[in-house]
Structures are given as structure tokens and as C-alpha cells.
Design brief:
There is one protein chain. With about 150 residues, the chain is largely without helices or strands. It has a single domain, classed as Alpha-Beta Plaits. About 15% of the residues lie in helices and about 5% in strands. The protein has 3 helices and 4 strands. The strands form 2 sheets. A two-stranded antiparallel sheet has the order 1-4. Strands 2-3 form a two-stranded antiparallel ribbon. The longest helix has 12 residues. It is globular and about 35 Å long. The termini are close together. About 35% of the residues are buried. It binds iron/sulfur cluster (2 copies). The site of one iron/sulfur cluster has 15 residues, from loops.
Length: about 150
Amino acid sequence: MALRGTVGALPGQHKASAGPGKGRSGRGYAPCTKQGERARTTVPRKGPFMAYVIAEPCIATCDTACVSVCPVECIHGPLPIDEIARIPEEERTTRLARLQLYIDPESCISCGACEGECPVNAIFDEDELPAEWGHYREINARFFAERA
Ligand code: SF4
Ligand code: SF4
């Protein structure tokens, strides 16, 4: 099943940042969000290179805002993106209760554009991934390995 797709912002979708992410060259984060205040403990790399990682807050939110800004279309999910995007916001917590999107570590160019688009701060540079979500690096990579 083809999973690639590009969608626009959903009605009522929140934009956490108007500009692109910081990329790997800068380490500044949007200030004072709940997730933004978490301790940012460096998690040792265990696998192949991965630039950005989608972590737990995406689950049941999954609004696809990140997809539309990714220049290399490397963000995918278990359902076609346009199908996910059509689910009304008020139904997401139930219909997407266990669903999130993932970043392909083989294709991500580490531009950081997606990071600031996420309304729930679910996207992290792998070097800044909170320790409690360190396993999401493997979860993202495994999603694409199992699709191959
Ligand atoms: S950091 Fe990676 S996943 Fe995010 S927009 Fe850039 S290429 Fe896409
Ligand atoms: S990572 Fe953030 S922006 Fe992307 S689909 Fe999940 S909740 Fe939406």
C-alpha cells in the first residue's frame, strides 16, 4: 500500500511555529511548552544514523502538520496520509488512539522544518530526544524496516 502523501493543514490546526525548525546547526527550542520544559537527556545512539524522531505525543494527535513541510516526504504512517488527515479533529483521540507517524531515518535530511510545526512537540532531533522517549528512535526505524 502506498503511504506517501502530502496534505495541507487541517481546519483548526495549531501552528506552534511560523518558521522552519532549527536544523542541526542550532539548538534553540521554542520556549515554555509543557514538553519543551522536559529534561533533555542525551540518549546514546544504538542504531544507524537518524536525524529527527517522532515520539509519544504524536499518538492520537497525528494531525499530519509535519508531513506538509517535509521537503523529502519522509514522514509516513500505517495508513495513507490523506486518509489520516480526513479524520475530524474531535474523532482523533478515539479513532487514532494507537496511531502515530514516523520519520524514515534513511531519507530524513535533518532540516528541522517539521519540528516547529508539531502542535504537541512530538518531534525531536535525535540528540535532544528525552530519555523517557529514547526507544522511539528504534520505533521510528523499525516501522520502515518492517515495510521494506
Ligand atoms: S527534519 Fe527530516 S523529517 Fe523533518 S522535515 Fe526535515 S527531512 Fe523531513
Ligand atoms: S508528529 Fe506532530 S505534527 Fe506530525 S503528525 Fe504527529 S502530532 Fe502531527
